[in-house]
Design a protein that fits this description.
By secondary structure, this protein is mainly α. It has helices at 5-21, 29-57, 59-65, 75-81, 86-103, 109-143, 174-189, 194-210, 216-239; strands at residues 244-246, 252-254. The chain is 66% helix and 2% strand.
Length: 258
Amino acid sequence: MPSGYFPQLFALVRRSFVVLGRRPSSPQPEQALRRLIWQTFGLAAVGTMVIIALMMWVDNWEIGLMPPRGAPNLWPFRVLTDFGKDAYVLSLLFTILLVAALLVPRSRDHTRARLLRCAARAGYLFLAVLVPVLIAEILKWGIGRGRPFVGGKANAFNFAPFAGSEAYFSLPSAHVVTAFALASAIAAVWPRARVVIFAYAVMIAITRLVLLAHHPSDVVAGAVVGMVGAMWVHYWFAARNIGFVIGQDSKIALVPAA
């Protein structure tokens, strides 16, 4: 290791936390915040109406169409669904962030700038997934909705709030939260990947339904929580000019590569 490597690394980590925690430095964060609040309320309102409608008229019917839980021919869905597992996604993003951060003190000039940009984007993706995942865990515990056929029959209104049991952790779907949060975050950094990454998110949602891990309403709730959570992290970074900027029209844009 070169002389001063660890002091440089610790300084980088410290500065990163300081920048993340500082007050907004963008010229017009209030307008962007108001816009975000309206978007959040809009998504939440539409999502809530769709969730209620699904619970009343679709959930029991849909799970009755699915193959039996644990059927051997469902192995492809069991493989695919793990691509939306929060622990795996967060571990991958954190590893990318860690590697980039460890290389920064040893780099020079243009390479250093590229590594810092990579670390900032990896940090953004990591937090854009972590925040909604944590929110989802709190919601799961508080709502306590039973998974499909828990109790022996289809019952879309089987609730045991604060039970703390995996069997009653159905709403929202954590896999779908992870997938849609990741899709929203990646689309903000690489807009051209939007179609592919949201196709991935939809695929994860389908696997959760086929495997009878969730009701359709759980999946919709997961998509809403994932996208809204990622949107707030997006705003947090933009308001502090970390990888994103807030334009005069209050819209958030990616800082172009130098």
